[in-house]
């Protein structure tokens, strides 16, 4: 029965292969700095009554709420968070399939889905507890419903597109790079339509749907404060762009091409260029619009960002697999070229350090410094957390604290041990405690106290702590995590009790 079903629905093997490749060794790469923050915030939002906590760091909360719900069901927080991205990656793959089916044909749609499945860049972010996979899915499905709405002015497509706009902005501000050009192209299509009045009415419904769904977010004062204050860290201001920083834009363009070529794989990038050429030759209206939808978000990204990174660029490359699939549908013999991205994915799945080290030989945009070697990676944090598990004596509680900051190791510590009955966690930072008298030489506690610090930072408790064990990154020397405990042996008159009940 199964072979007949597969023959009838050839997308099934691609979906099965997607699921297998995305889940195998899902936690082999340790928890990344931002993943730790988002998972910690997710639990706080759902269980500690602070749903808007992430706005203090200018992060919209929808995906963070989903992380918190997933952590409620799945004990391992990293598995919980990364599985969410696996699901949104699956949604992106289906979006690629249906866009290609709508614009080209079923044969091209299957090859497009296969190209997405085999793209190392999408593979990586489909397995990270980050927002990029969700923004990618939102982008491709927004393109799909725009095409449907232009072809047939149905109210249901308007509502679906408005819901996707709201969903994307609830997740990340960068969704605007899809929302703005898609809205413009719909309005341009409306101007040239014989049913102009009805299409303009649908445009109003689109706006209303988006605003209604965004209403709770837009009426949060924290959102506007953080949005306006932090946006300039990542994006050029309007005044800066009006100065026409051509050198900066040139750098961004070169970085984009570099990332697309090496991290989608040279094969898929070249196939996509061939697909674009084939679509231009056909001169179809939909083909032209699809090409504009590929180029417009990328152009906005080039003009607006301060620094290009593979992570932030990845959603705006989502139509590359669509064009790669078109080329493969015309020249199936070129499918042999997918062996290269298949090998890249295999190394990502089985040996991430080897993959990033190899990638770094070809491109300076490999991001090896944040995932493998240098700062805020998860390697020393993972080793430290494994050691923390061994600290509690039988049936006795211990307290393990860290400094007042998101990321590794504090957020990872909280995310992993929040449910542990013997390991209490919290912030151990002098900013949160009353000033300690100068004559105090030691601190004492009713239970053993430990402190987990990054790069020897001790949060103002330096004179009261003694190191227990250092955990270094095996792939680089710029990052370490150290476990400390309270110093002992001081005279009673110079020892103060440490009040952990804050």
What does this structure look like?
The protein is of the alpha/beta class and 502 residues long. The chain is built from 23 helices and seven strands. The protein has helices spanning 2-8, 11-23, 33-47, 62-73, 77-103, 106-118, 120-125, 132-151, 155-171, 176-191, 196-218, 221-234, 238-242, 246-263, 266-282, 285-304, 310-313, 320-330, 339-350, 352-360, 368-373, 379-388, 410-417; strands at 398-402, 423-427, 442-444, 449-454, 465-472, 480-486, 495-497. The strands form two sheets. It has a five-stranded mixed β-sheet. The radius of gyration is 25 Å and the shape is elongated. It starts with a helix and ends in a 5-residue tail after the last strand.
Task: Using brief descriptors, characterize the structure shown.
single chain; 502 residues; alpha/beta; 5-stranded mixed sheet; two-stranded parallel ribbon; 7 strands; disordered N terminus
What's this entry about, in short?
Helix content is 60%, strand content 7%.
The largest sheet has its strands arranged as: 2-1-4-6-5
Roughly what percent helix? 55-70%
Could you tell me the mean pLDDT?
Answer: 92
Low-confidence parts? 1-6
Which helices and strands occur, and which strands form pairs?
Layout: H1 2-8, H2 11-23, H3 33-47, H4 62-73, H5 77-103, H6 106-118, H7 120-125, H8 132-151, H9 155-171, H10 176-191, H11 196-218, H12 221-234, H13 238-242, H14 246-263, H15 266-282, H16 285-304, H17 310-313, H18 320-330, H19 339-350, H20 352-360, H21 368-373, H22 379-388, E1 398-402, H23 410-417, E2 423-427, E3 442-444, E4 449-454, E5 465-472, E6 480-486, E7 495-497
Parallel strand pairs: 1-2, 1-4, 3-7
Antiparallel strand pairs: 4-6, 5-6
């Amino acid at each position: 029965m199964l072979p007949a079903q597969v023959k009838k629905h050839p997308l099934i093997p691609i979906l099965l292969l997607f699921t297998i490749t995305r889940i195998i060794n899902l936690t082999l790469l340790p928890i990344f700095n931002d993943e730790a923050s988002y998972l910690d915030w997710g639990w706080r939002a759902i269980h500690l009554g602070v749903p808007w906590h992430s706005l203090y760091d200018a992060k919209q909360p929808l995906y963070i709420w989903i992380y918190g719900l997933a952590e409620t069901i799945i004990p391992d927080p990293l598995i919980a968070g990364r599985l969410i991205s696996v699901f949104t990656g699956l949604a992106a793959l289906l979006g690629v399939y249906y866009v290609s089916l709508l614009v080209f044909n079923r044969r091209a749609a299957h090859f497009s889905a296969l190209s997405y499945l085999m793209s190392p860049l999408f593979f990586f972010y489909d397995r990270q507890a980050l927002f990029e996979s969700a923004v990618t899915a939102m982008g491709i499905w927004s393109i799909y419903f725009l095409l449907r709405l232009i072809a047939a002015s149905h109210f249901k497509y308007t509502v679906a597109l408005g819901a996707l706009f709201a969903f994307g902005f609830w997740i990340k501000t960068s969704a605007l790079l899809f929302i703005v050009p898609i809205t413009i192209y719909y309005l341009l299509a409306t101007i040239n339509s014989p049913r102009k009045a009805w299409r303009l009415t649908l445009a109003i419904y689109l706006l209303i749907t988006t605003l209604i769904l965004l209403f709770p977010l837009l009426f949060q004062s924290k959102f506007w404060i953080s949005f306006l204050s932090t946006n300039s860290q990542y994006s050029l201001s309007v005044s800066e762009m009006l100065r026409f920083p051509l050198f900066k834009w040139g750098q961004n363009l070169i970085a984009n091409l570099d990332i697309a070529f090496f991290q989608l794989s040279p094969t898929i990038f070249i196939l996509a260029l061939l697909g674009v050429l084939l679509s231009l030759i056909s001169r179809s209206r939909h083909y032209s619009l699809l090409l504009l939808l590929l180029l417009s978000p990328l152009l906005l990204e080039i003009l607006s960002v301060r620094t290009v990174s593979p992570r932030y660029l990845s959603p705006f490359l989502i139509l590359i697999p669509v064009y790669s699939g078109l080329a493969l549908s015309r020249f199936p013999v070129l499918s042999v070229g997918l062996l290269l991205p298949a090998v890249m994915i295999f190394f990502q799945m089985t040996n991430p350090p080897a993959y990033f080290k190899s990638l770094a030989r070809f491109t300076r945009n490999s991001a090896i410094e944040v995932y493998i070697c240098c700062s805020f990676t998860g390697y020393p944090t993972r080793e430290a957390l494994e050691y923390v598990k061994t600290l509690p004596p039988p049936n006795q509680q211990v307290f393990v604290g860290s400094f007042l900051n998101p990321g590794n190791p504090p957020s990872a510590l909280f995310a992993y041990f929040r449910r542990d009955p013997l390991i209490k966690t919290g912030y151990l930072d002098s900013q949160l405690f009353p000033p300690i008298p100068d004559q105090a030489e030691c601190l004492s506690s009713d239970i053993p106290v430990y402190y987990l610090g990054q790069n020897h930072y001790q949060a103002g408790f330096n004179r009261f702590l003694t190191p227990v064990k250092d955990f270094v990154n095996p792939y680089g020397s710029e990052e370490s995590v150290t476990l400390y405990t309270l110093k002992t042996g001081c005279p009673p008159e110079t020892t103060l009790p440490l009040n952990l009940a804050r």
